[in-house]
């Protein structure tokens, strides 16, 4: 599944190496870091398709998290290279659903899967806003 997914248009890979400050008392990556990796990957994907935060600020609206779900499957350890693979699977009028697969390429092990439901909001006042067509076009929907 992972190799097939990586080849699809609209799927973005963010590379990361596990650092000492991400390791917990059980000698593996603390769960909160996986969540942080998903947000970092989402932001990097946005930048890669031409939507850095400065562009959202010009628009006067941006994405905020409504909900996260994550399933931890295997531990990552100090020094592991990981890929946080991400894609948009739904794009509604005011929301999107983004999925993630966190993989250790050395042995093709899926370490975690996750999804984030985002809502588009006006920066001033934090009220819901309609996702503009130019933003929709930047993120092709991947049905997986």
Q: How would you characterize this protein structure?
A:
By secondary structure, the protein is of the alpha+beta class. It has a single domain (2-138), classed as Hotdog Thioesterase (Thiol Ester Dehydrase, Chain A, Roll). The protein has helices at 2-6, 31-48, 53-59, 133-138, and strands at residues 12-17, 61-72, 81-91, 95-104, 109-122. A five-stranded antiparallel β-sheet has the order 1-3-4-5-2, covered by helices on one side. Strand 4 and strand 5 form a beta hairpin. The longest helix has 18 residues, at 31-48. The mean pLDDT is 95.
What class would the helix/strand composition place it in? alpha+beta
CATH topology: Thiol Ester Dehydrase, Chain A
Low-confidence stretches: none
**CATH class category name:** Alpha Beta
Number of domains: 1
Helix content: 25-40%
The biggest sheet amounts to: 5 strands, antiparallel
Strand content: 35-45%
Series of H and E elements: HEHHEEEEH
- Shape-level CATH architecture: Roll
- Rg calculated over all Cα atoms: 16 Å
Give the strand line-up of the largest sheet. 1-3-4-5-2
Put simply, the count of helices is: 4
Terminus-to-terminus distance: 10 Å
